[in-house]
Design brief:
The relative contact order is 0.20. This protein is α+β, with helices and mostly antiparallel strands. Helix 1 crosses helix 3, helix 1 packs across helix 9 and helix 3 packs across helix 9. Helix content is 28%, strand content 26%. A hairpin with a 2-residue loop joins strand 1 and strand 2. The protein is elongated and about 80 Å long. The model has no long low-confidence stretch (mean pLDDT 96).
Length: 356
């Protein structure tokens, strides 16, 4: 029996009403594990992550994935249905995707699908990258690396969003010599030493880059700036953080070299955070079939997602989900009920049979 948009909405309400701020996902992980137990397949646990592996019948493996955690509530911890949407914390990012995955599990016969199927519900996506549950699960369950394709049900408003930009954070330290502000000739003001460079780097243009026919935008922004210790002391150092988003056609090493070339050699340069971009897999057969079959709109993913973890593991992957990306982490977060039904229908049809 097929799920309906309304039944998935009711399941989404239940998921939202289980608190699961990053670091406190045990209750929702237990709930999901209980819903996955029984019938064909097996349930595997990894901390507060849950993986369901369907019967292995020698078919290509498809992985559906979604994170269970949310950001802290903003007076939106409880769900409500209003105006054709489910409102509340995590409705769009990304318990809507989790609800669709559970609905597929509970209504499809895994033995009758044309693919072997695995469902990955993971923890700690909203926190520091080092604790990300998907990374841990991919390490602990190497059989996932044999997947023909992974779909990450992050919010895309039903678009297929390919790959994602990489991330680089670099601390640039401009040296100076501290001195009393009344005797500036006794020192070197680090702000003055870095002013011309800073003025130039803040004008770095947003640059479109085309990869497999899709546009990604390269950006470089100064996101933090610190200098000085007191009002009457020349700053002995100025520290600027550069946040660089780079397209999927280059490596982390290439991105580092590009930014290093923009910083004077006498300034300190330290990479403090990095994440590889997600590979663009629009040319893979399963991806092309999904896009063509449903007439899905296709775009490049500007923000970083865990698609990059899948593609780094050699698994073709894309973002596709019912949530609305522009509402992520907002107090007015919501997900259209219609999108829940459409996401379920497309994925069910794709898993069950080829296009006629």
């Amino acid at each position: 029996m097929r799920a309906t948009a309304e039944s998935i909405a009711e399941l989404l309400v239940t998921l939202v009403d289980i608190p699961s701020v990053t670091g406190a996902e045990k209750a929702i992980a237990d709930f999901v594990a209980a819903r996955l137990t029984g019938g064909d397949g097996e349930v595997l646990r990894s901390g507060n992550g849950v993986v369901w592996r369907g019967p292995r019948l020698g078919r290509p493996l498809i992985v559906l994935a979604g994170h269970l955690d949310t950001v802290p509530p903003q007076d939106n911890a409880r769900a409500r249905i209003e105006g054709g949407c489910v409102h509340g914390l995590g409705t769009t990012d990304m318990k809507a995707g989790d609800a669709v995955m559970l609905a597929l599990h509970e209504t499809l016969d895994p033995g009758a699908l044309r693919f072997d199927l695995a469902l990955v519900f993971y923890d700690a996506e909203e926190g520091p990258a080092v604790n990300n549950g998907l990374g841990r699960i991919l390490r602990e369950m190497p059989w996932l690396a044999g997947a023909a394709m992974a779909v990450l049900l992050e919010p895309t408003d039903m678009q297929v969003e390919m790959g994602c930009n990489g991330i680089l954070n670099v601390e640039v330290r401009v040296p100076g010599v501290p001195a009393h502000a009344a005797r500036p000739w006794m020192g070197v003001n680090a702000v003055g030493e870095g002013a011309a460079w800073l003025a130039g780097i803040t004008r770095f243009p947003v640059t479109p880059v085309i990869v497999q026919g899709l546009e990604y935008r390269e950006t470089l922004q100064v996101t933090t700036l610190h200098a000085g210790t007191a009002r009457n002391v020349l700053p002995g150092e100025m520290v600027a953080n550069l946040n660089h988003r780079f397209p999927p056609d280059r490596t982390v090493e290439q991105a580092v070299a590009r930014i290093r070339a923009l910083v004077p050699p006498q300034f300190g340069f330290e990479v403090v955070d990095q994440a590889a971009p997600g590979g663009v897999c629009l040319d893979r057969p399963e991806v092309m079939e999904f896009v063509k079959r449903f007439g899905a709109k296709v775009a490049g993913k500007q923000g970083w997602t865990d698609v990059a973890r899948f593609t780094s593991a050699g698994i073709p992957a894309f973002n596709f989900g019912p949530g609305l990306a522009e509402l992520c982490h907002r107090a007015d977060e919501k997900c259209p009920i219609e999108n829940l039904g459409v996401a379920y229908d497309w994925l069910a049809a794709f898993l069950e049979s080829e296009a006629g």
